[in-house]
Task: inverse folding
């Protein structure tokens, strides 16, 4: 059975790779049609046509890989069946081996490609089958040529893969990481598998998606998980002059981390999910050596790929005495930090499809919960601000607003929540979108007046504050209701389908996605359901296997 596992995992890997190629072809054809006729699709890039094939691929891949591990279950079932007196010892070694396997997985994925890791697992299993069979002279004589042949075949296959000759490629489709209709197919420069997913360095022509007028230009980025990506900004005097007045996704408005007039006398900046430092570079472009910048990035490969792209000159930037990048999980970092910060910025505003459905373990959603926001507030100075980089329509609330209010209310129950929130925009900005900034201590009327004066010099407008006429209807309505019905902050049963209606917590952290049919979140519900049923079915097979296998077929007489 162990040898069958070795064979099946190589075959399953090949079939998953083939299914991935088919999916890429289907998705590229759909994207080509959508990009050529955007009016026919209501402006939706992530259409139902794309989500469904992706979901089917996830399920097919799960089934194909589960078949291989079915043989592992059969091995255990046989071992438990014929050596019931040593059940505890067998189970102990099984768990011990599983632990070693988990450790080796992290090590292999840190230094090798995923195919090398899986082929190594296959070879290890085949070697184990050979060694155990050797213990039984009768079985070894009968199967020695097959087992030796299998081991030499897998060893050759592994060496060929290490040398660059492999039947597996696992390429991404050419429209991956799409953000608007004004994107060209990408060119992948390099990629690396990591324990936290596939990371790629790529280039394409793009126009930032929130530009009022399309403006195509080159884009170099490090992509993760086929969804989230970190833009690589060049550390040059010429580029710093440009980016200080722009945001990552728009040339028309500055990023919240550098918005003029808000951050006088702020010194300590912390950027979570910092990627390659795109937000840190913008802050440096405005404040230079006057601030201390600390970035936190979970995946070292993301940061390293940016450094290795020499044209960006990022190594010089991160070697500056006031700039530092920490490789750590953001929430753990801030909860264990002994420092307080004047500004905390969450550079990435949500979760991609794979992190949203739990396919990848590097989900950032626990950085957006009430418990996380309480940690941020406790680590902010009295003049500190909290930024979640995300814009919202005048008719929508920022998905983080209720969560921030709930966290602040637990820390300061008597505070006036309205005085901790300020939103701004720029006349003519794409769809009249608003950026929202949260303040640790309440703003005063005089502070808002000063901010408003500086904003006017940069053609920016306060759309919501406790002291100015509101130009942000959804936020005004939210605080009007909250002032009369404090309990309306929390929405109970039924669980709100819209992300902006929820207080996100560690128990319900599914930030960003609306669980509404026709949107990405609606398909996640289907994905969760199918994944649960698939896992239940496989578990039932594993549990039933010992009952199916006849004791007479595998008797103790066959043991050495």
Result:
């Amino acid at each position: 059975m162990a040898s069958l596992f070795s064979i099946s995992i190589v075959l399953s890997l090949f079939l998953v790779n083939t299914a991935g190629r088919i999916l890429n072809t289907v998705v590229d054809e759909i994207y080509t049609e959508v990009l050529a006729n955007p009016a026919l699709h209501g402006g939706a890039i992530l259409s139902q046509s794309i989500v469904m094939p992706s979901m089917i691929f996830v399920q097919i891949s799960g089934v194909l890989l589960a078949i291989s591990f079915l043989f592992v279950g059969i091995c255990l079932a046989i071992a438990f069946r014929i050596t019931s007196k040593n059940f505890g010892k067998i189970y102990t070694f099984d768990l011990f081996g599983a632990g070693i396997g988990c450790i080796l997985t992290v090590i292999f994925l840190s230094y090798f490609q995923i195919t090398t890791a899986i082929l190594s697992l296959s070879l290890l299993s085949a070697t184990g089958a050979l060694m155990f069979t050797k213990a039984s002279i009768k079985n070894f004589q009968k199967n020695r040529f097959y087992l030796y042949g299998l081991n030499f075949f897998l060893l050759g296959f592994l060496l060929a893969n290490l040398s660059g000759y492999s039947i597996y490629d696992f390429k991404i489709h050419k429209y991956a990481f799409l953000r608007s209709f004004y994107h060209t197919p990408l060119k992948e420069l390099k990629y690396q598998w990591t324990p936290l997913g596939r990371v790629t360095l790529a280039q394409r022509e793009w126009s930032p998606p929130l530009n009022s007028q399309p403006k195509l230009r080159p884009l170099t980025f490090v992509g993760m998980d086929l969804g989230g990506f970190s833009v690589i900004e060049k550390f040059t005097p010429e580029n710093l002059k440009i980016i200080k007045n722009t945001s990552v996704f728009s040339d028309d408005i500055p990023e919240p981390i550098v918005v003029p007039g808000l951050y006088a006398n702020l010194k300590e900046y912390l950027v979570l999910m910092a990627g390659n430092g795109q937000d840190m570079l913008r802050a440096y472009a405005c404040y230079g050596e006057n601030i201390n910048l600390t970035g936190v990035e979970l995946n070292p490969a993301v940061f390293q790929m940016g450094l290795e792209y020499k044209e960006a000159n990022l190594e010089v930037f991160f070697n500056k005495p006031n700039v530092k990048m920490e490789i750590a999980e953001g929430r753990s970092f801030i909860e264990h930090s002994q420092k307080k910060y004047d500004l905390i910025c969450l550079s990435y505003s949500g979760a991609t499809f794979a992190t949203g459905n739990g396919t990848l373990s590097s989900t950032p959603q626990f950085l957006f919960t009430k418990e996380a926001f309480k940690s941020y507030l406790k680590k902010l100075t009295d003049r500190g601000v909290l930024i979640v980089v995300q814009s919202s329509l005048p008719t929508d609330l920022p998905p983080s607003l209720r969560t921030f209010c709930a966290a602040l209310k637990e820390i300061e129950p008597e505070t006036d929540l309205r005085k901790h929130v300020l939103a701004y925009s720029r006349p003519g900005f794409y769809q009249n979108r608003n950026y929202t900034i949260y303040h640790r201590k309440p703003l005063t009327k005089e502070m808002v007046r000063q901010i408003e004066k500086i904003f006017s010099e940069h053609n920016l407008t306060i759309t919501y504050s406790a002291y100015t006429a509101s130009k942000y209807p959804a936020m005004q309505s939210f605080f009007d209701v909250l002032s009369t019905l404090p309990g309306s902050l929390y929405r109970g049963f039924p669980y709100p389908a819209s992300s902006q209606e929820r207080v996100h917590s560690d128990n319900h952290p599914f930030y960003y996605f609306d669980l509404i049919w026709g949107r990405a979140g609606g398909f996640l519900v289907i994905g969760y359901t199918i994944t649960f049923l698939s896992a239940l079915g496989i578990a039932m097979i594993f549990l039933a296997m010992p009952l199916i296998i006849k004791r007479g077929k595998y008797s103790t007489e066959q043991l050495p």
Notes: The mean pLDDT is 80. Residues 534 and 540 are 10 Å apart (CA to CA). The radius of gyration is 27 Å.
